[in-house]
Amino acid sequence: MTTTALRTSTFPTTRALLTCGILAGPVFVATGVLQGLTRAGFDFTRHPASVLSNGSLGFVQITNFLVTGSLTIAAAAGLRRVLPGRWGPRLLTVYGISLLCAGVFRADPQDGFPAGTPAGPPSSVSWHGTLHFAAGGIGFLALVAACFAIGSHLPPARAWYSRLSGLLFLAGFAGVASGSTSPVVILGFWAAVIIAFAWLATTSFHLLSRGESR
Fold first, then answer.
1. Taking CA 156 as the corner, what is the angle to CA 188 and CA 144, rounded to the nearest 5 degrees?
2. pLDDT above 60: residue 214
3. pTM of the predicted model, to two decimals?
4. CA 129, CA 106: separation in Å to the nearest integer?
């Protein structure tokens, strides 16, 4: 089989993988926001999306983590096919795996959520809560690094957008990692998550469009 024939036969699969990168963010954000608006006791200024994994409807957010993690890993596989570098897709894969781990290892209830939970942080952190935050920390740092690694193979304007997205996400992550419960910090982290997934979606779309023009 010639190189041209090989590219033609694999192109639909590459398109599907990159489409996963476009869908990952809207799936995660829309599902999280819808839950936040409808579940008793949840407050966007006090709670990250992770705590939605608790309560009788916690399976919805657990599924959200698992689906989004799978979509992100698929997107990384698509990026690996169309970019010359390998570190960017590998780092994005690490982030996808961290999302899967976030679904498997549930964050602890906190600050009034689910309804009936005492105000403030949990009095003690469970083993699964510890693993949840450890996986998140590793995944978030991998995502920041992926923004820089993938950006190095993009046109100048998109390269700067990629780096800026990584820096903004790092700032949002640093805020919550500091232990601050300020509404500004919590909302800032929600914004950082949206920025990061918007970067993944637009980057995937750019590479998909570029592939279609060949």
1. 35
2. no
3. 0.90
4. 6
